[in-house]
Amino acid sequence: MATHITYRRVYEDTSPQDGTRVLVDRVWPRGMRKADAHLDEWLRDVAPSTDLRHWYGHEPSRYDEFRRRYLAELRDAGHREAVGRLRELADQDRLTLLTATKDVDHSQAAVLAEWLHHDSRPRT
């Protein structure tokens, strides 16, 4: 797994430190041209389901439950291919997960970064 996994808003300027840049939103960011995103990949199928996104509504008070439900979705067979691709990308040196969400610390990108870091720990 990547030694350096970060997450941030897709609207921020790119950085040489980004490494592989992956958008993890289900819908394209408003007002952003595809050429301006400077993405290596868009993994919309790793994003939370539409129903979960709507329930969450980016309410910080619901974050813990959102996180729990989202991690359950990631374990579901319907996400297997996208999750596998994300793990492949995380095998590279640096990975930046991108989202249009204003509160990135309470977003699916934050959940994914934590999950990938945890997933890379040696198993006993």
Number of domains: 1
Side by side, the strands of the main sheet go: 1-4-2-3
The low-confidence parts are none
Class by alpha and beta content: alpha/beta
Number of strands: 4
Gross morphology: globular
Please outline the major beta sheet: 4 strands, parallel
Order of helices and strands: EEHEHHHEH
Average pLDDT, rounded to a whole number, is 90
Helix share bin: 25-40%
Distance between the termini: 17 Å
Strand content: 5-15%
Total of helices: 5
Rounded to the nearest angstrom, the radius of gyration is 14 Å
InterPro entries: YeaO-like
Protein name: DUF488 family protein
Pfam family, one: DUF488-N3i
Organism: Streptomyces similanensis
Quickly describe the structure.
This protein is α/β, with parallel strands linked by helices and 124 residues long. Helix content is 38%, strand content 15%. The mean pLDDT is 90.
Structural overview:
- This is DUF488 family protein.
- It holds the Pfam family DUF488-N3i.
- It comes from Streptomyces similanensis.
- InterPro entries: YeaO-like.
- The chain is of the alpha/beta class and 124 residues long.
- Helix content is 38%, strand content 15%.
- The chain has helices at 34-37, 50-56, 63-75, 80-90, 108-119, and strands spanning 4-9, 20-23, 41-42, 94-99.
- A four-stranded parallel sheet has the order 1-4-2-3, with helices on one face.
- The mean pLDDT is 90.
